[in-house]
Amino acid sequence: MNFIDKLSAAWTTNNSLLCVGLDPDLSRFPSHLQGQPDAIVTFCKAIIDATADLACAFKPQIAYFAALGAEAQLEQICHYLRNKYPHIPLVLDAKRGDIGATAHQYAREAFDRYGADAVTVNPYMGFDSVEPYMEWADRGVIVLCRTSNAGGSDLQFLDVGGKPLYQHVARLVAEKWNRNGQCALVVGATFPEELAQVRAIVGDMPLLVPGVGAQGGDVEATVRAGKTAGGAGMMINSSRAILYAAPQAGEDFAAAARRVAMETRDAINRFRG
Ligand SMILES: O=C(O)c1cc(=O)[nH]c(=O)n1[C@@H]1O[C@H](COP(=O)(O)O)[C@@H](O)[C@H]1O
């Protein structure tokens, strides 16, 4: 099953548009895991098990692993996800962008090494830097469009023929780059007006929408702006607000993550109809 079909099935099966981000930060781990050699894997597996019936996708952020030299642990976590929850799409957040030959290596890393169903990529270097990912026709290519950070406006709002650059990217991907129907776009939940603009340009193309939770994006505004006519079309990501929902001591971290994931999924669902 290709990425888009798998995502559509997960929206329905789990009645969820919530993407659970896996951004392991050792300094925020519960005290009983501090200093444990297998802390990253134990922590991420517990979060995955606690939220797998509430999520339409999982999104490990590669920098959180690479910074710790923990690529082997990321491999283990991806392997665990693919085997135990094969119906939930695995999105590798890598935001790569480089010349074609190098991009091919990044694609191998995402799709062959980690077995990701989809990967985030940066469009700044143009189509030949994104095309290598498309050789894996059953995988998703999720292109940055209107990112959730304030500084995204520095470039993404530049005027390109009377339209802001992010709209040009949305149109380019929807009309030219998406030859195999495998593309999606990143649009931040922190910018619901732009989210609505992108939705109007790209039809039912899936959108990865980070920025609810720790970044303060408004769930109602996000869902109303970004949903498709069918009330889906988005992977609304939350990472830190779910991962570190528990206070340092006290409530079990996985139970707390489940509680916040469920609240977030349900809050999203209230505005889908
Ligand atoms: O591509 C992304 O996932 C992404 C794009 C974007 O515009 N903004 C953004 O926050 N992200 C990622 O989404 C996650 C957001 O994490 P929280 O702010 O903790 O929910 C991080 O892993 C970011 O790297």
From TrEMBL:
Its EC number is 4.1.1.23. GO terms for biological process: 'de novo' pyrimidine nucleobase biosynthetic process; 'de novo' UMP biosynthetic process. GO terms for molecular function: orotidine-5'-phosphate decarboxylase activity. Pathway: Pyrimidine metabolism; UMP biosynthesis via de novo pathway; UMP from orotate: step 2/2. It comes from the Bacteria. The active site is at K95 (proton donor). The keyword Lyase applies. SUPFAM superfamilies: Ribulose-phoshate binding barrel (SSF51366). The keyword Lyase applies. InterPro entries: Aldolase_TIM, OMPdecase_AS, OMPdecase_type-2, OMPdeCOase_dom, RibuloseP-bd_barrel. Belongs to the OMP decarboxylase family. Type 2 subfamily. This is Orotidine 5'-phosphate decarboxylase.
